[in-house]
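Students often ask why inverse folding is considered easier than folding. One informal answer: many sequences map to the same fold, so there is more than one right answer. In these notes we will look at a single instance of the problem. The structure comes first.
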C-alpha cells in the first residue's frame, strides 16, 4: 500500500471531531444512536465510516460486512459477499477486533488488526483493480476520495455516468466548512 494513502487516512481521523460535532447537530435517530454508542474505546475511523454511510442514507452493507470477532477468511460466508470490494469487520463495527477485504466474493486480505489500514486498503482496492464505486456506497467513497485524499479530478469519476462532483458530497463538504468556520 502506498505510504501517502495511509498518511491521508491519518488526516481523516484528525478531522474526525468536526464530522462528529456536525453530525451531533443533525436530527437523525440512526446517527444519534451511533454517537450515543461512541466511547473512548470506540474506533474513530470505523465510526466516521458509519456516520458517513448514515449521512448519505445508504446501508452499511453496501460497503461492509460484520462477522464474528474471531472469523477467518475460511469462516466468512462467501454467499453474503458482494462482487465489489467489501470491508469485512471482525466483531462490533464500533470496536472491531480486525478486518478482512473481499473482492469479487473472495477474501483476498486479512485478518489484520488496525481498522484504519483496512479502510485505506479497501479504498485503494478500487484504484488498484480499476473498479467503479458501487452505486449504494459511491457518495461515501467519493467523500473520502475528495475530502481526505485530495483526489479531485476535473473530469471523470469512479462513479457511474458522472462528470462532476456528486451534489450530496459537495453539500456535506460545504456544510462541514461552514460548521467549522462558525464554531
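Output (designed amino acids):
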Amino acid at each position: 500500500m502506498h505510504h501517502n494513502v495511509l498518511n491521508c487516512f491519518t488526516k481523516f481521523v484528525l478531522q474526525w471531531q468536526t464530522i462528529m460535532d456536525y453530525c451531533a447537530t443533525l436530527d437523525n435517530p440512526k446517527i444519534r444512536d451511533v454517537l450515543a454508542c461512541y466511547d473512548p474505546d470506540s474506533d474513530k475511523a470505523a465510526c466516521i465510516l458509519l456516520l458517513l454511510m448514515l449521512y448519505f442514507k445508504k446501508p452499511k452493507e453496501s460497503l461492509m460486512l460484520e462477522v464474528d470477532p474471531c472469523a477467518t477468511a475460511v469462516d466468512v460466508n462467501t454467499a453474503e459477499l458482494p462482487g465489489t470490494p467489501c470491508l469485512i469487520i471482525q466483531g462490533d463495527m464500533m470496536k472491531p477486533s480486525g478486518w478482512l477485504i473481499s473482492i469479487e466474493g473472495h477474501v483476498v486480505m486479512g485478518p489484520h488488526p488496525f481498522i484504519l489500514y483496512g479502510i485505506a486498503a479497501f479504498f485503494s482496492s478500487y484504484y488498484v483493480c480499476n473498479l467503479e464505486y458501487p452505486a449504494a456506497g459511491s457518495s461515501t467513497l467519493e467523500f473520502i476520495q475528495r475530502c481526505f485524499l485530495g483526489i479531485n479530478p476535473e473530469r471523470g469519476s469512479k462513479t457511474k455516468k458522472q462528470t462532476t462532483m456528486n451534489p450530496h458530497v459537495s453539500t456535506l463538504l460545504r456544510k462541514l466548512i461552514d460548521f467549522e468556520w462558525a464554531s
